[in-house]
Every structure is written in C-alpha cells, then in structure tokens.
Amino acid sequence: VLVAVPLYHAYGWDLGLLPTLCTGATMFLEEEISARRVAKLLRDHNIDVLPGTPSMYRELAKLPTAKALKVTNPRFLSGGSKLDADVAQAMLDEYGVRLISCYHTTETGVIALDVQGKNQDSVGKTVDGVELRFTAPKAKKPASGASPAAAKQGVIWVRSSALSPRSIGPFKEERVKAREVAIGESDGDGWFRTGDLGRFDRSARLYLTGREDDVVKIEGKRVALGEVEGCLEAFPKVKAAQARLESDPFAGSMVVARVVATSHCEAEEIIDHCARNLAPYKVPRRIEFCDRI
Fold first, then answer.
1. How far apart are CA 207 and CA 284, in angstroms?
2. Residue 222: enclosing H or E segment and its boundaries?
3. Is residue 240 a contact partner of residue 233, using CB atoms and an 8 Å limit?
4. Which sign does the torsion angle of CA 4, 6, 10, 14 carry?
5. DSSP one-letter code for 124
C-alpha cells in the first residue's frame, strides 16, 4: 500500500493506514508528493493499493516515463474530487490500470466504490454495511420507516456503524431552522446529512450531482464559495463577486471568480489580496471581469 496522501486527512487514514493494519500489508508512507517520486515507487515496489486524488493521477499520466505496471489486480483509488474521464482513460492507456472512483467523507468513511472502474461518471455501489437514502433539499430528515428505494435522487443521507457519533466543525454555525438537521449532523435515528446531492441509476449505481449548499471540494478539502466571495468583496476595488468551481482537464479543480470592479484594477491585484487572506487551495485561479452579477 502506497500512502501518498497525509495521514491527518481522513482519506489517507481510512484508505491507507487502517487497511495496512487490518491486512498486515507493507505500507510505504510518502511525504514528498510528486508524480515522479510516486511513479518510481509504483515501479520499484509493485504497489497493489494506492489511494490517490485525480490531480495526482493526472500528473502521473503526463510523465514521459509512464509505462504499463507489472502488477496483478492493482486497486488504485481516486477520491477527494470528481474523476474526469480523460484522466481515467490516460491512466488505463499509460499504466494499464483502471482507477476506482471512491465516495468518501470524513464523518462516514467510505460510502461507495466503483470496483470495476468502468464508469467514471459514477462512484459505484454502496459498500456493505452502509445504508443510503435521498430526500428533497428542504426535507428536515428521512421519513421514518421509508424504504431505501422510496426516492432515487436528492440529498444524500448515510447510516452505518462506521459513522462518527459526533464531529466538530464549521457546519455547527450553519443551522438554518429549529429542529432541522444541519449539513454535517445526524438525526435521532442515526442518519447523517452529507450535503451532497446524488441519484441512483437502474443498477443502484450512485452518481454525485452537486451540493445543497455552497461548499465544494478541491483535492478533498472543503471550500465554502461564500467565504471566497466575502474575501473578494472585501477588496476595495471590487463591488460584487461570484465564485464557482471549475474542472480543467490539465489543472484539475479550481476556484474561478466573476467580479464587478468599482475602478480599474488588474486580476493580479485581486488574486494577491485573496492569497494574503485565504488558504492556497481557496484562492481563485482566474478572475473574470463583468458589468453585473
């Protein structure tokens, strides 16, 4: 098992360290997260299991030294953000490996896996022991006694023995109505509100379709677009701002912002302002000027 994501991140802990302890496998813990280094370890040590991110696989596929791996039944997992079809195809072409899309959250652990790796748009089927239900975005909680097949799309709620009994985080400040289960919390029956929107197809494969709030994920890290917009509008030369998530086949997921300027300014000024006030992964990579939002 090659762990190329930090152990303090739930993804690295759940899919790197814990499987190693449970199976007695050998774990390679890599602190230098570079595509060249990861590619060398894959070749030199016949890595079977690799929990990674779409951006890491994107960089691996672009290496001029990329070649098919001599390993039987590799299980290379992709989580933290959406896996683009071109990245999955590039890994198959260059390394002969089908990536396994994974739906994982800090509070619930692994929810679903696309074990066959043949449908990049889906995160696969729910794993054993995990119950999943959908509600309308404005529903307070899953209906008591409702069948799991009652709804095929909507807000995703999860219940399992792996669910954390409690969590501490920013969502505690986002209660919207009394008696309503907030995003990131559980109801009295143990159903956890993920905040993710999704749907089942006829084969019970899960597709993620968005969020019910403004929180997006970039390489597994939560980004509240409202926070980015607030930072942009705090800049003296910006009257209004709107942030969104964009996925680029080469650069991966990134924040892009539309802004209405009060006076002439350069995009670099705005980006520098954000860089001084936001974590690096929250800083907009591109600024688009417009007359109104």
1. 27
2. strand 221-224
3. yes
4. positive
5. B
Work out the widest C-alpha separation in the chain, in whole angstroms. 62
Q: What is the separation of C-alpha 239 from the centre of its chain, rounded to a whole number of angstroms?
A: 31
Given this model, what pLDDT does residue 179 score? 59
Residue 213 DSSP class: S
Q: Is the pTM of this model over 0.70?
A: yes
Distance of alpha carbon 281 from alpha carbon 141, whole angstroms: 32
Cα–Cα dist 193/186, whole Å: 6
Q: Euclidean distance between the first and final Cα of the chain, in Å?
A: 48
Is 276 exposed, middle or buried (CB count within 10 Å of its CB: 0-12, 13-18, 19+)? Answer: exposed
Three-state DSSP at 132 gives strand
Question: What is the tens place of the pLDDT at every residue in 55-102?
Answer: 889 889 999 988 999 888 899 999 877 788 888 999 999 999 999 999
- Bridge partners of residue 44, in order along the sequence: none
